[in-house]
Write a structure and sequence with these properties.
With 298 residues, the chain is of the alpha/beta class. The chain has 14 helices and eight strands. It has one domain: Alpha/Beta hydrolase fold, catalytic domain (Rossmann fold). It has helices at residues 4-7, 16-20, 58-64, 90-104, 116-128, 153-159, 165-175, 180-189, 198-208, 213-224, 229-232, 251-260, 279-282, 284-297; strands at 23-28, 31-38, 43-47, 69-73, 109-114, 133-139, 239-244, 264-269. The longest helix is centred in the first third of the chain and has 15 residues, at 90-104.
């Protein structure tokens, strides 16, 4: 039977005051990023995944802010942030992150990334280095979603590719077409467990659709056709790696990510313990405990 903690998903009506108090940080003259923030002390910056929102992390902001200054960011095009016609590349999102860190004067930062948020962290490290970063939490993002041509099967297992080039292009084309919203719902269904409550799932879909599907498709194109293995191997700060047995992202690849990083520890959620791609929503208590324990020791 599923663990009871795993099905006690955060209600989207909870922490309504935090949800309503979004402030904006300028990343470019015409781009302002929505930030949900609370607390004081050492900063934690949360980067949601592709098409996801800061609002989905409000429970984490509320809980962790008892000891830390916590900022959850809506990246450009996502959630409450500006939705310009340009900049839907991982490198541009990393530059946006740098703009926030500089504007807020943040140092000794914990960067928490989920899914594509991890890729933004990897791009940030490649472009700007780790001088401002104290440690990392990387949640369920494999080094490459599409295998490079000529990749060995053994290497594919390590990088965690889940699409062929043709499948990825078909998905992107579908997202940018008239059935983009329906396709988004089906895609999210494949990333959650069968016990994820229906009302929370509808909320999850609605949060995703705050990003126009055309922009989401353009960003996904840039996201999936990258391999971050060389960057991951050079990470030089303590890192907590999180995977999940029932995730669309192979848990074996998350274990491999941990093995690539010299100062790392890895935890894999069991399938019956909220272990989907959205483990952060399906078992928030467990993930919060893991993060707090890691931060206390690092």
């Amino acid at each position: 039977m599923p663990n009871n903690d795993a099905v006690s998903t955060p209600r989207h009506s909870a922490n309504s005051q935090l949800q309503q108090n979004v402030r904006y940080v300028q990343a470019e003259p015409d781009v302002h990023l929505g930030v949900i923030e609370s607390g004081e002390g050492r900063p934690i910056v949360i980067l949601p995944g592709w098409s996801q929102t800061a609002n989905q992390w409000v429970e984490y902001v509320a809980d962790l802010s008892a000891s830390y200054r916590v900022l959850a960011i809506d990246m450009r095009g996502h959630g409450t942030s500006s939705k310009p016609a340009h900049g839907y590349r991982i490198s541009r999102l990393a530059a946006d992150l740098q703009a926030v860190l500089t504007s807020e004067g943040l140092e000794e930062i914990t960067l928490v990334g989920h899914s594509m948020g991890c890729a933004v962290i990897w791009s940030y490290l490649e472009l700007f280095g780790s001088s401002k970063v104290k440690n990392l939490v990387l949640i369920d993002q494999t080094p490459a979603l599409v295998a490079e041509p000529g990749e060995l099967i053994s290497d594919e297992a390590k990088i965690g590719s889940i699409f062929s080039s043709e499948e990825a292009l078909q998905l992107i084309q579908g997202l940018r077409g008239p059935e983009g919203a329906a396709l988004t719902s089906r895609l999210l269904k494949s990333m959650t467990s069968h016990v994820f409550p229906a009302d929370d799932f509808q909320w999850l879909v609605a949060e995703n659709l705050l990003m126009p599907r055309d922009l989401a498709g353009r960003l996904l194109y840039d996201h999936v056709f990258k391999n971050w293995t060389d960057v991951i191997r050079r990470i030089d700060v303590p890192t907590l790696v999180i995977g999940a047995q029932a995730s669309i992202a192979p848990w074996q690849a998350m274990t491999a990510v941990g093995e690539m990083i010299s100062q790392s520890e890895t935890f894999i959620f069991d399938a019956d313990d909220g272990g989907s791609h959205f483990a952060f929503l399906e078992n928030p208590k467990k993930l919060l405990d893991l993060i707090k324990d890691f931060l206390e020791r690092n």
